Amino acid sequence: MDMNIPRSEIGLLADEIMEQVAKWETYGEQSGTSLPSVSFDTRTPVLTVHTPDDVLEAREKIIESAFKLLQLAAGPSKFASIAISYSQTIMALKWLFHFNIFDLVPEEPIGYDALAVSANVPVFELKRMLRLVMASYIFSEQVDETVQHNTISRAFAHDENMRRGIPFFCDVVIPAAARMEDATIRWPGSEDSDETARNIALNDDLPFDEYLTECNQAEGYTRLMKLLGSEPFRQNVYSANVVQGFDWASLPRDSLVVDGPEDKLDIMKDFVRMRNPGLLTQINFCPHNFYGEELIHSARVYLLAGTLENLPDDDVREILRCVSSVMAPTSTMVIVDSVLLEPDDEESMAAQRESRCRDMTIRQLHNSGARTLLEWSDLITSVDDGKKFDIFWAMWGEFEGVMMNAAAGV
């Protein structure tokens, strides 16, 4: 091959994939773990938050380059068919969950006829649905036309976030997405939680929180939100910025840190134990939801890690005012939250797609959504409580923007 011939963009992307795969393979060799195979064998280990950051980052770069490679290779002629295949796969998952197929497939392979009898469904429909999701590597079919779990289908069977979150997405989010234009026509620009695409789709006038309670959907929604934020790389970026992005060592011993809900607190503590266990002996954490409860006065740090995510602007301002009102001159407010990538950031289009889809989901359900860095800045500086806010920004992570705000109580 003539080395003087310029590499095509497709060729450069292939090179990037090979470079990042080599990093993953090196980790696999050193740690004694195997990489995923096309068979998605159930014995293949999966990456977790304990996986080294450089390996998780290599994985994200593989996904990013592979996504671009697919788009370039497919071109406009394949765009519609690829998009339609995603939609039909989601609806097939809805069917499989409804008829408990993930639970009915045992540890050993099972024939289609026996599985259809167990599920009380026509065998020809069962085959169609299973073979559709198999085209996305969910389940596998053996040479004797039996069905067997693989890594992905097993996760659907046993991971509660998937078991509860995906049906909520199918039953609530997809109908809401289909009525988005109707919501824009009926309530243009509304931020009220009872004037959403979901309200039109499900034909009710309930604010979202009331809907979750009255219709027993709170667990499904919570599981979906955890599912959207449960990627190991996303969790590591999120937690690393809490642990490393603030000078915790400068705090006096036994400093009180008022933190967010206990589930997010547990994630952060696990990360602290792995990366900086000494912090847990120096500072004390107190969980708080920052909404509807009386706040502790004069804590050293008020840590809002993900607390403001998905909330409308007015609710964010109210929380910031409440926190500011109980801060002492020595107190600091730290906000760590996801930031929407700017639309001109072509280096992270796969991450753009994920973050924009999360943002749209929140809009369809809440009439709120994620914010860009500029939108966060404007929102925080719009809080008028008579105090001075010194705002500092820090961004970490090539694929997920994270915002830190420190506000001094004066």
TrEMBL record:
Q: Which InterPro entries match?
A: SAM-dependent_MTases_sf, WH-like_DNA-bd_sf, WH_DNA-bd_sf
Protein's UniProt name: O-methyltransferase domain-containing protein
